[in-house]
Amino acid sequence: MSHLHLRQVSKRFGAVQAVIDATLQVQAGEFVSLLGPSGSGKTTTLMMIAGFEEPTAGSIELAGRQVEHVPPNQRDIGMVFQNYALFPHLSIAANIAFPLKVRGRPRAETEAAVRGALALVGLEEMATRLPRQLSGGQQQRVALARALGYQPTLLLLDEPLSALDKNLREQMQIELRRIHRQVGITTLYVTHDQAEAMTLSDRIVVFNRGRIEQVGAPLEVYARPATRFAAGFIGDSTILDGTASTAPTELRLPDGTTLHTAQPLHTNATGAASLLIRPEDFHLGEPPAGANALPVQVLSVLNLGPHLLLIGQHAGREIRIRTPVSPAALASEGSTITAWWLPAKSWPIPPA
Fold it and tell me: For residue 66, which phi and psi values (nearest 5 degrees)?
């Protein structure tokens, strides 16, 4: 039985349908990220699970109990907010102790839980300090310790790293993974950062315009996106549009070029079809037999350290190629190169 189960959950704010028929099962101990752009419905879904918003329709089951009408403080959920929400006048230890005191836990149990939570996030020496005396990363650790201190059955995190700089954000990603492995708590994490979701998650839930478009492991969602939105939103991509040929695995581009894929195309009523190629799957130079190949005019060359990102075009369609730095990759802007890739690296996606 899943630890958290959403069944056709919807939320309407007046004329705005913020979440539409969200159905999701999360197993005990999973780390699941809700990923999507602003306004896609991910935070509203988290707020309904937490109890701060009530669904317009559908049900939410937590640990075998329906909770959509249960007050937030009776759901046994820990939550970390984007702005930390620490009490500025309380010490770090008192902040962590607050949820335990509200729940009427004995003093000895509360003190032991606070010590354990501080040790978990590596802030044992900061117990007597006030929040303003800590860095942003340390405050985030305190918020996490407070959410975990009373050992809830579910942890919810609403874009908790968005206020941190790049280095701190990457450090906190490592810490979150370590803490999750150590504690094993079921975790839902809201983010609009694709790289963050890929790094942290056991599974990713892709939201778009209030709907869940895809649920899967990070590499599955990246390599085999189910929708055109997921293909473009997660990672860098080249999308080639054309029409299906007589063979179900052949795409004909508007300029007459025929491309091959290992999977059947998705076509609409007019025969339109599309292929996705990730930038690292392109190669430069003479193509081997059976490979797809296109002449690409190079528009821009970006140095990414050990790799180059070549941005070019073929017949008006943008092509993005990531390749290791080598003499063969040192194409100049304005030149024309041959880019090739294997049919197995062409992933069919629904046409526009």
Answer: -75, 130
Handedness of CA 176, 182, 183, 187 (dihedral sign): positive
What is the CA 107 to chain-centroid distance, rounded? 39
What's the length of the chain? 352
Give DSSP secondary structure letters for 55-93: -SEEEEEETTEE-TTS-GGGS-EEEE-TT----TTS-HH
Question: What's the whole-model pTM score?
Answer: 0.91
Of 330, 257, 339, 336, give the one whose Cα is nearest residue 299. Answer: 336
Please report where in the chains the tokens 């003190």 appear, as a residue. Answer: 111
Residue 258: give its domain's CATH number: 2.40.50.140
Say how far apart CA 152 and CA 79 lie, in whole Å: 9
Q: How many domains does the chain have?
A: 2
DSSP assignment, residue 14?
T
d(CA 187, CA 51): 16
pLDDT tens sequence across 260-290: 999 999 999 999 999 999 999 999 989 999 9
* Pair (344, 296) in one structural domain: yes
Q: Enumerate the H helices of 121-165 as residue ranges.
A: 136-148
